[in-house]
Amino acid sequence: MTQTAKPVEDLTLSEAAEELAALAAEIAGHDRRYYAEDAPSVSDADYDALRLRNAALEAAFPELVRADSPSQSVGTAPSGAFAQVRHARPMLSLDNVFSDGDVRDFVASVRRFLNLSADDPLVFTAEPKIDGLSMSLRYERGALVTAATRGDGETGENVTANIRTIGEIPQRLPADAPEVVEVRGEVYMRRDDFLALNARMTEETGRTFANPRNFAAGSLRQKDPEVTRSRPLKFFAYAWGEASAPLAATQFDAVRRLGDWGFPVNPHMARCAGIEDMLERYRAIEAERASLPYDIDGVVYKVDRLDLQDRLGFRSRSPRWATAHKFPAEKATTILRAIEIQVGRTGALTPVARLEPVTVGGVVVTNATLHNEDYIRGIGNDGQPIREGRDIRVGDTVTVQRAGDVIPQVLDVVLDQRPAGSVPYVFPDTCPACGSHAVREEGEAVRRCTGGLICPAQAVERIRHFVSRNAFDIEGLGEKQIEFFFSNEKASQRIASPADIFTLKKRQEALPQTLDGSLERLEKVDGFGETSVRKLYAAIEERRRVPLHRFLFALGIRHIGETTAKRFARHYLSLAALRAGAGTAVPPQGKGDPGNAQWQELVAINGIGAVVARALVDFLAEAHNIEALDRLLEEVTPLDEEPVGEVSSPVVGKTVVFTGALERMSRDEAKAMAERLGAKVSGSVSKKTDLVVAGPGAGSKLKQAGELGIEVIDEDGWFVLVGQG
């Protein structure tokens, strides 16, 4: 887990920006392994801690919120093994809370958004959070037509044939169902079924799954539906997506209606009149957790009235009207056998604990992240001792913690069991991959390799990122193949940069028809063969034309993740326009300097801040980056982005600024409404601004709008404009 030696309030702007970038990359990797690969690599507790740190940084530095932030995205891209289905309404995930105080804060935030007083009634539902695979079932005229996984929230995998094998899921709905309705819920496997099937698979194939959730996900992603049919999968319905007619007026009654249609719904769902009822229900469900036949990892609270849910709306990755109250993690003790150092794409040296295998909550765990060198030494976020200053050493008996996944968190050391003669762990100051000096800048918790382009660990990671699912998605270039091509000294086989991928076939075909030349052909190399080489070439050829946002993400530009890349692509629409705009942008050179017009356009893009904008500008200003980019463009073509035109409203595509006091809605609600209607909301007035909505007390922004001749309306005028007056 990425940590810092400083508390959030002591971080500088640049330190916070760098840590947010590292967190975005780390969490995205964990999301990919959990959602797309069914192979989580950290515990729920570790994952939640990463998201909590990210949220704390964003709260303290709102101007640094990244477009590729975990708070702006959900899940990961569909795997490609199945056809893709675009969700009519996004499938979002939930924010998590961990304490009674967090629940109180959640309820207070809902009241604040809705402008409700403490005395106004506000009812919630509470239900167990099932640890399974999210699923959306689309029915048209009563018939099940498609079933899709959540995927990245926008697009999922089509698993309709496999879903039809689950007997609990109705193939048809009764006559009173809407003409179109998407029923959403969780596919899961009972714990006893999981243990029996896992034992059988161990005996027959030697393969095991870590937990019922992974087994259920793997069963649902079988190419042969008959394999899925042989697995005892279950389903709970708890929500809906698109619906051509309302299901009910409240969450509770809508779920009860799903039950009337024949869907299994959780019997532990209940209405709660307030915070104390919610916490009481949480404790009751937690007390029953061990006796339930399926895995749960918390309790989900939702605002009961659906009209209030509509007003609250959504953030980028989660609804404002719901949250998940997670259960505490499970613990065990084991022996730390070794500490290994891994080098990431950005050069970060991350210590990994290799553990004596131990079963925690029914799952065998063997390794864990040790976060950073300070954590090993017994130093916490604030620079003060943790674990009463106890360091972690090889050979120690350690307490580990997990909450449903494979890799635990090392919590503490059992000091009275420390072996005689043990010595403190010395964190390396050289990179284990290339031998370059590894430095730790002042205020940083992470030590980084200075090898840059010469470091094989970083270069391999860059190529791996380039071919990953959400980037160029080149099948057949996995970790082992990339290692082979990168370390290869033969010019006809070496891949040292992304452009080399697309010249591989040409270099192979240019080999002389001699014995030496023949031996260099990939078909002659162990592990390849004619069929696999033919498939690899075909996969590479298929990716010579890719969407612009994938191309931008694949470049691995610091701070630019999937969501950020999509925002740049949707704004500029073509790579030529992006290079002409961002490539000529000049950031502010000092106090009072706003930068040139291209820079102002760049930072006016919704969700793009100065840190992200500067990262793109800096990338395009480096001669060696342009050289590599031009070389890549000789081989591939990024496709122009299609303009977004799905929303129809008077403000679609316009940049709107809200200023002054708003009386009919909160500022957050106003922003959410404008974005829902297709507008871009900006925090500052510029020549790019189309409309200013000014309430009482509007000051400098209103004055600036007048000077620039920008249209200004009041709050009532806004509601009339958007057809809600």
> Termini distance?
49 Å
Per CATH, what is the topology of the largest domain? Answer: D-amino Acid Aminotransferase, Chain A, domain 1
| CATH homology superfamily of the largest domain | DNA ligase/mRNA capping enzyme
**Major sheet, described briefly?**
5 strands, mixed
Strand order of the largest sheet: 2-11-10-3-9
Q: What does the average pLDDT come to?
A: 85
CATH structural architecture of the largest domain: 2-Layer Sandwich
Query: What CATH first level of the largest domain would be assigned?
Result: Alpha Beta
Structural domain count: 5
Structural class: alpha+beta
**What does the radius of gyration come to?**
27 Å
User: Total number of β-strand segments?
Assistant: 24
Helix content: 25-40%
Low-confidence stretches: 1-5
Q: Tell me the β content.
A: 15-25%
Shape: globular
The number of helices is: 25
Protein traits:
disordered N terminus; alpha+beta; globular; OB fold (Dihydrolipoamide Acetyltransferase, E2P); five-stranded mixed beta sheet; single chain; 5 domains; five-stranded antiparallel beta sheet; D-amino Acid Aminotransferase, Chain A, domain 1; 24 strands; 725 residues
